[in-house]
Every structure is written in C-alpha cells, then in structure tokens.
Amino acid sequence: MSRTTATCARASSRPPPNRLPKIISPHTLHAPIRLAKGCGLMLEVSSTAGGPMSVDDTARVWTIGRLADALGAPEHRDELTVERVGSADPVLRVVMHDHGDLAIFVSCAGEQIVVSSLLWPVDEMADAAAFNHFLLRAQKLVPLSNFAITDLDGREYYELIGELSIESTLRTILIELRALAHNALDAAADLRQAFAAA
Predict the structure, then answer these.
(1) Residue 155: beta bridge partners?
(2) Which residue stretches of the chain have pLDDT < 70?
(3) Rounded distance, CA 56 to CA 171, Å?
(4) Positions of the region Disordered (predicted)?
(5) Is 25 helix (H, G, I), strand (E, B) or coil?
(6) Are strands 3-6 and 43-46 parallel, antiparallel or unpaired?
(7) 64 within 8 A of 90, measured Cβ to Cβ
(8) Is 182 helix (H, G, I), strand (E, B) or coil?
(9) Which CATH number describes the domain made up of 59-197?
(10) How far apart are CA 116 and CA 143, in angstroms?
(11) Domain locations in the chain?
(12) I need a surface site. Which of 77, 168, 172, 192 has the fewest CB within 10 A?
C-alpha cells in the first residue's frame, strides 16, 4: 500500500527548498499533506508494489536518441511506432496506431520537447481569417494543445502543437502524445466541419 508521510524538521537539518530531491511526481502522491506553519517538508513515498518507481515515472533530461529508445521500447509497440527523420536537426515521427496511424512529430528544442501534427492546408478554408479568429476563441476548449500555422513547401497548414519540459517523465510524454492525437482527430472531424457548416 502506498504511504506518504510529512514531518517537521529543524531548519539546520533539512536542505533548502530549492534543493529538495525530485523524487515525487503527481502520480505518486495520493494522500493530502498538511504542514504546520514554519515546518519543513520531508516526504517518504513507497510504490504500491513495494519495488522501485516505474521507469515511466522517472524524470530525466531527454534527447532525441533517448526519446526514440524509450518510445520504441517493446511495451509501446502496439500503441505506436517511432522512426527518426532528418539528419541535421533530427526529429521523431511517431505513428499513433490507436488513433488511425496519425503521424506526430517530436523534437527537442532547448528546454522543451515539442510534439506536433499537421492538420490541413489553410487555403482549404473558405474564410481563413474568420476560422483563425474562431480558433483563437476556441483554444481554451482544447486541452494540452495549441493551434498554429506552419509553412511546408511553400503552402501554409494548420498544425496542432503540444510542449513539455525536457525533464518530463515518459508517462507525461505519452499522455501528451495521446492527447495531441485525440485533439487532432477531433479538430479534423468536428471543429473543421462545425465551422464550415456555420
């Protein structure tokens, strides 16, 4: 059974708050924590199985190579396929099998992991300016994803983008990929048609 304990500690016996070890993820904290005023926080977390934390919950600094290895692991094979594209600035093409083999592109840029999927050409919208205005207003209804316009071979396309910290857990990256795939399919099927019908 999972257990979380919080105890007060003297200021001299605890590390400064900005130096606390990163051993807790939101997925491992199950109990509310109450602190008395002026108390430091020390947490002890044990997994429900009594063993080490899942590799999916381990924070790390990602590179394209590490992401390719982690996402290409056998346990993810039924859900997605990963391949590297490009050589100068390598990008991963992740095919989401549970979402109609939708392609999502993954890159590492500075302190971020960027995931994106092309939607459809801007010039296919009868009134692109009105649709763009509509997208800006509807943005808050689309969880974890942002709309953008990108140029591809001289043609502008709508694109759905998600961004994560380079230190995100693999579990968080998988959640982002699934959310982006779901949102892209919803945008293509519902959002585009709803606007066209209005």
Answers:
(1) 152
(2) 1-57, 59, 196-198
(3) 5
(4) 1-22
(5) coil
(6) antiparallel
(7) yes
(8) helix
(9) 3.30.1460.10
(10) 14
(11) 1-53, 59-197
(12) 77
Count how many Cα atoms sit within 13 Å of the Cα of residue 111 in the half-sphere of its side chain: 1
Residue appearing with tokens 């977390």:
45
What is the chain's length? 198
> Which two tokens mark 61?
């600094």
Q: Which amino acid is at 101?
A: D
Write down the pLDDT at residue 83: 96
Q: How many CB atoms lie within 10 A of CB 58?
A: 14
Distance, in Å, from the CA atom of 39 to the CA atom of 185, rounded to the nearest integer, reads 48
Please, what's the largest Cα pairwise distance for the chain?
Answer: 66
- pLDDT value at residue 13: 37
3-class DSSP state for residue 12? helix
Give Cα 103 to chain centroid, integer Å.
Answer: 15
Tokens of 89: 């600035």
pLDDT 10s digits, 124-151: 888 899 989 988 887 777 778 999 999 9
| Interatomic CA distance for residues 149 and 151, integer angstroms | 7
Residues 6+ apart with CB under 8 A from 5: 42, 43, 44
DSSP single-letter state for residue 98: G
